[in-house]
């Protein structure tokens, strides 16, 4: 994970010894789970600044859910504004 003053990137990478990489549909599902979890636990309309996939999806429903287009790139990355990740959860257990 790279941290900058204003944004935080989370990149999923294949382990060097592994011959397999995660399928794009699974990575996108995990990104959707993360965004949904952030929205539900903060009661805020948190959206990523950018999503990069090795095989981007241009489905309108997916773009509407995330609130940003999915770009083509060499890695599978989701980028959030640092301020969005500093919002407190509404409760804790």
Tell me what the structure shows:
By secondary structure, the chain is an alpha+beta fold. It has helices spanning 24-42, 60-66, 82-85, and strands at residues 2-3, 7-12, 50-53, 70-72, 76-81. A five-stranded mixed sheet has the order 1-2-5-3-4. β3, α2 (60-66) and β4 (70-72) form a beta-alpha-beta unit. The chain is globular.
Could you outline the blueprint of secondary structure elements for this entry?
Elements: E1 2-3, E2 7-12, H1 24-42, E3 50-53, H2 60-66, E4 70-72, E5 76-81, H3 82-85
Parallel strand pairs: 3-4
Antiparallel strand pairs: 1-2, 2-5, 3-5
Could you give a quick summary of the protein structure above?
By secondary structure, the protein is of the alpha+beta class.
**β-strand number:** 5
Q: Give helix % range.
A: 25-40%
Count of helices? 3
Derived from helix and strand composition plus strand pairing, the structural class reads: alpha+beta
Low-confidence stretches: none
Give the biggest beta sheet. 5 strands, mixed
Order of helices and strands: EEHEHEEH
Mean pLDDT: 85
In terms of quaternary structure, the protein is single chain
Distance between the termini: 26 Å
Q: Quick one: overall form?
A: globular
What radius of gyration results from the CA coordinates?
14 Å
Strand content: 15-25%
Strand order in space, largest sheet: 1-2-5-3-4
